[in-house]
Amino acid sequence: MKHPTDVVEVGDRIRFDGGVHVMAGLDGPRCRLVAEKGAGVQVLLLTQVLGAQDFAVLDPRRPGRSRVPVHGPLDGLDAAVRERALAWERHILEVETGHIGPHRDWPPRPGYDPAVYGLAEREAAKAAELTATGEQVSVATVRRMRARYREQGVWGLVDGRLKRERSALGRADPRVVAAIKRALEEQQGRSTGTLSRLRRQVGWLLEDAHGPGAVAVPPVATFNRLVRSVAEQGQIALTAAGERRRASRPEPVFTPTVATLPGELVMMDSTLLDVMVVCEDGQARRPELTMAVDVATRSITAAVLRPKGTKAVDAAVLLAQTLVPQPMRPDWPAYLSMAASVIPHTRLVTIDARMQGAAARPVIRPTTVVIDQGKVFVSRCFLAAAEYLGITVQPCPPASGHAKGHVERGFGAIGTLFAQYVAGYTGNHLVARGSTVEDEACWTLPQLQDLLDEWIVCGWQERRHERLRHPLMPRLTLTPNEMWAALTGIAGHVPVPLNGTDWIELLPSRRCAITDEGIRFEHRTYDGPALNGHRKRSTAADGKWEVHHNPYEPWQCWVRLPHGWERVAWIHQGLVSRPFTDTTWRHIRSVVTRRADRADHEERLARHLDELLRRAYPGPSSRADSTTGSGNAPGRQAGSKPARRRKADTGPPDHPAEQLPPLDEEACPAPDTAGAWNIFDAHQEAQKW
Predict the structure, then answer these.
(1) Among candidates 648, 474, 665, which has minimal Cα distance to 573?
(2) Is residue 633 part of a domain?
(3) Is the dihedral of CA 75, 76, 78, 81 positive or negative?
(4) What is the radius of gyration, based on Cα positions, of the chain?
(5) What total of structural domains would you count in the chain?
(6) Residue 523: Cβ-neighbour burial (10 angstroms; 0-12, 13-18, 19+)
(7) Do 126 and 199 share a domain, yes or no?
(8) Cα separation of 428 and 286, whole Å?
């Protein structure tokens, strides 16, 4: 039966002159036909073919239908839905052509031969066949499925309810969506943290708006998908640390690093912390973190924050810190003490009396320390300190961060678990850095050191580690403190006493002469009664004496005299009202021009230094008083947006030094009585033994 709407195209199968042919080509009024049976090729007029009595297009192709079956969208559907769509395709092809799929050589089944039955009869036969199988299918349904197949191909045979585009937010609680959107908007322009920090911030917003426990935060995986959907809908930039891929990775080690006893292998390294702090001169800068990690227990045995440019004394004292217990701060809660932890405190106190009143941090004696090729760790001061403490130093090859992967992983954990919750967080890469990070900084370096020490005790040492397994129960994951307690029962604990002399031995040394004016170096003069009788009387070949000094306490030094160490104070320490470091002293030396002799210039440097420290010191109305104190753990207060910081002018004053107002030495204690920059009090440590 011919249909006036049939369109003949190249490639169509047609019935002509009692046989089945393929339209191989069209050339104006002529066409080329190739018989399916046999190799006959005919060139005929197109009008002759179209006017034949038995002409019919067996598999017509319409403009909206693709020549290549589109099955790609079906791959994302369930197997049952995909099989149902393909079955309908076979039914439609049988209704239209009398054949099913590629089986064109088979004779049509009864009721589906196009030469005998019309299209309406074939549709009725298909509806009856499907109804007989138990599925209620009408003729209208068959016609509707044929129309969909002609327009969309096999994709049109899929149930429309399954193809319906779902909401990107799904069935999420609108209150949670609103909180996520608000949190994303608030972090615009600020340093971006991880999705875990964002999840906590959303929880805080929900508590503030609806009360504690009223609205639950979705699980981690659901929350992460919801955050990405909200960010895409609102066109909000989302640059979390977890979304960034590293461009390159170091080659992995051949065998993993294994240590079975505490102190068997300790890794040390330094890095810049992703937090801005208020330095002595009032400017906001990133401090440098130097820490040691024990491989066997994953414990952070010591961590020191210093201004950028870690010195050899920091690394040397870091070794000593691993050997002594960390004392409890006065404002720390009782549950951070070693007595309240799983560490066998009662037994350790009988061995080491210093454990009484100590914080819950392991005391480990390193046997081997792994370091990189940094100048701090290969310096004479650090190597001498390691030799003095009986520690073997093992340098790793250059550009091989994987060789000390445990400490590198520790830096990453501090960044995600601690630093991103502190005000002044800079982000772990440039793209995530906020535009007003310097204004958000509100913590000083000693305050941030106190926060970090408290977090290590409560946030790291009590956190379960997947790689820490009990020796007798390998399925049980342990915390660093639990692992140290388990291994201490095997390896034991041998206390290492360090007295005041030992701490002095760890400091950097230099050779200086004792003149009539005293000891002079770095444009500072040290003098005192202890030097009398030793001026210009050195028995050494160079006529000098061994002097040790602390870059973080420049107002004093120690000289080795024949009867032992003697402390010598800086002659101008009474002019400086606040603690300072060698870094600030070098800054003053670079900006103050010498206009008088050496003695007057040194006094002028001291007065300029005091004025700088007075101006940089935060007053009652500044952000230092708006913080919650140095003893609070980093949390909502530490991560909240502080008041705008006042910029301090670090340049030298225009007026001469002699015109500066006199200092009230009774109201301003001398620097040697202020312990803000002290790492340890050597004499107090010695009294414990």
Answers:
(1) 665
(2) no
(3) negative
(4) 41
(5) 5
(6) middle
(7) no
(8) 12
